[in-house]
Amino acid sequence: MKCLTAVLILGLASLLPAAHPAVAQTPEVTASEVVDAETLQAFVEGARAWSETFTDPNDFAPYIGAISTEGDWKHGNTYLILMLPNGTVIFHAGDATASGKSLYEIEDARGNKVVQDLLAAANMGGGHVEYYWDDPEQEEDEEIAKIAYATSYVSGTTATTVVLIGGYYQAPSQAVAATFDPSIIHPPEVTAADVVDRATLRAFVQGTKDSYTNALEQFGVDELLQHQDIFRVEGGPWRQGSIYFFMFTTEGHVIFHGADRARELRDASDWEDINGIKVTEELIKLARAGGGFLEYYFDDPAVTGDEDTGSPKVSYAELITFQGREYVLGAGFYTGDPDRALRTVTRTEVEATVLGDAVEGLAVEFSRAIAGRRSNYAWNAFTDATGHVSLTISSTRRVSGYYRARARNAAGEIVGQWYSIPLNQDRRQVLELTLGGGVRVVHVEQLAAAKAVVATSGLAPNVPNPFNSTTQIAYHLSSPGPVQLVIYNVLGQPVRMLVDQFQAAGSYQVQWDARDQRGVSLSSGVYVTRLSYPGGVQTQRLLYLK
User: Fold this and answer.
1) Cys bridge to 18: 59, 335, 351, 460, which one at CB 3.0-4.6 A?
2) C-alpha atoms less than 13 angstroms from C-alpha of 5 in its C-beta half-sphere
3) How far is CA 427 from CA 90, 351, 352, 447, in A?
4) CA distance 222 to 470
């Protein structure tokens, strides 16, 4: 398996050809002129030739805009599909919901695995494939052979093969979410569920950046892109309700959005809040300045009635550079979210002085020290002229225990490391750290107690998630009333009713064995739990891996 030193922040944009905004190319054979196999081939090969000229991922949004808009590159059932050689869709101009799904096993009316044939044709340098499909918009066409054409090109940014298909318009209703292995990516020390304030938000963003970089260096972009839905799983390390992460280029083109795939591959440079704050533009400025927080108002999907006013939100963004190009990674939380505000926050505060030569401007980073677990330096701050540094380690989990720390200079070189630093919850600890590795606890004092948890109605993250046999789904009711707990597949079809009754206020737990209403074992993939309770509805995703 090849190992790339790229960062996954390139994401799908790295695979997509990037157009120069000032050049809107017209194909020699447009989509409306495709009438037979010959003109179809000319149309797709024209798209391939155009794609091969692009090298800058900052300019990919105009290209996506061109091929997804009715016109020269899209007309009726003639449009382009981009996918990985394993059948995972990168972009589907005919059905945006197909992006990220696997079409590899789709069959036509005669049992032919059309996508596999198209991939084989592309691998041979390009070719036509016949398929049979009863188009519901056409009458008596089930026995008429339809023709698709596939070719491939190599991305100018990552040397990754991309398959380009035209003429294939079988409805992708059989498409399934691409399978992925959650174990290949180390979760951040501070997860999305731990984000309760600015300190934990920044730690979540920085930990996510480290997770991306480490995984990409180990597995390479090809392998990792096949597992990208790891970062979208509700209740997983990278997504919890309205807390998720996003990535975009420094020109404001969205590369990844943890909650809304439809926003990806789009230009978000002009996004504004209700007060006219250019959110994307300001986050880019903050990232370029070394990272920072932005306060603004945005429509919270969980809040009814804030469409015109927005809800207060804080986002944090940092810059990352790869091959001379800059990208932005960030995340945010709604400051008025009652579920977030009422979670118990545990913390410890550290006041440390680094002793030695050249101690000003060092990045001092702390990580939990857990046997068998890779260090994830999620909490950090910079030393002043005297070597002093102050930081808070906060989490919704217990923070007492042993920590390790390191100091890096402006060049990123590790100039000091410390092990087995004892830190206690709800304490302020004053430390002396010598660059040679010495640790001395100077003083410890009590902090004010953290807020207690106030239980509210709703779902808790299912455990385990992902799961391979059974999972426990827990929820709480703050008031009595009718309750329904239903499992849906990714197509929105109900597959299992777990609860349908009147229940008293209290906490409940239900086990699901990945079987449908008839007791038949379901296939691996993503499923959705929907809890309907007095006063609200809540959903979250489950990942079943056999």
Assistant:
1) 59
2) 3
3) 49, 11, 14, 5
4) 31
Q: How far is CA 33 from CA 36, 74, 351, 476, in A?
A: 9, 11, 70, 59
3-state secondary structure at position 536? strand
- Residue spans of beta strands (DSSP E) within 457-520: 458-459, 471-477, 481-489, 494-503, 506-512
Report the C-alpha gap between 230 and 245 in whole angstroms: 12
SS3 247: strand
Question: CB–CB of 114/150 below 8 Å?
Answer: no
* 3-state secondary structure (DSSP) of residue 90: strand
DSSP string covering 269-315, please?
TT-B-TT--BHHHHHHHHHHTT-EEEEEEE--TTSTT-TTT-EEEEE
- State pTM to two decimals: 0.59
Nearest Cα neighbor of 241 from 539, 536, 473, 527 is: 539
- Quickly list H helices, 124-157: none
Mean pLDDT by 10-residue block, N- to C-terminus, for the chain (546 residues)? 30 42 69 96 93 70 79 93 89 82 89 96 96 86 92 80 93 71 78 87 90 74 69 87 90 86 81 84 87 84 73 88 78 77 74 92 87 76 87 79 90 90 92 94 81 57 78 81 87 88 78 90 87 74 80
Residue 2, beta-bridge partner list:
none
| 341: number of Cβ within 10 Å | 15
14-45 per-residue burial string, b: 16 or more CB within 10 A, e: under 16: bbbbbbeeeeebebebbbeebeeeebbbbbbb
Instruction: Return the structure tokens found at 357.
Output: 């030569």
For 114, phi then psi, to 5°, come to: -60, -45
| Cβ–Cβ < 8 Å for 310, 272 | no
Q: What is the pLDDT of residue 18?
A: 40
Spatial separation of the C-alpha atoms in residues 123 and 138, rounded to whole Å: 32
Instruction: Please give the angle made by the CA atoms of 231, 56 and 41, to the nearest 5 degrees.
Output: 90
Q: Which residues contact 486 (CB under 8 A, 6 or more apart)?
A: 494, 496, 497, 498, 529, 530, 532
**What is the distance between the alpha carbons of residues 33 and 231, in angstroms, rounded to a whole number?**
41
Token pair listed for 322: 């790869």
Do 218 and 5 meet the contact criterion of CB atoms below 8 Å apart? no
- Give CA separation, 44 vs 41, 47, 163, 170, in Å: 5, 5, 11, 17
Cβ 431 vs Cβ 352: under 8 Å: yes
With beta carbons less than 8 A apart as the criterion, state whether 536 and 456 touch.
no
Quick check: helix, strand or coil at residue 13?
helix
Is the preceding peptide bond at 136 cis, omega within 30 degrees of 0? no
DSSP 309-329: T-EEEEEEEEEEEETTEEEEE
